[in-house]
Amino acid sequence: NGKTSVTYMLKKVLEAAGEKVGLIGTIQNMIGDEIIETERTTPDCYQLNLLFKEMVDKGCTFAVMEVSSHALDQKRVYGVEFDAAIFTNLTQDHLDYHITMDNYLEAKKKLFKMCKTAIINKDDAYSDKMLNDLSCNKVTVSANDKSATYFADNINYRADGVDFKLCGKESMSLSMSTGCKFTVYNAMSAAVCATELGFDKETVLKALCEQEGVKGRAEVVKNPFDFTVIIDYAHTPDGLSNILT
Question: Of 6, 7, 11, which is closest to residue 199 (Cα–Cα)?
Answer without folding.
Answer: 11
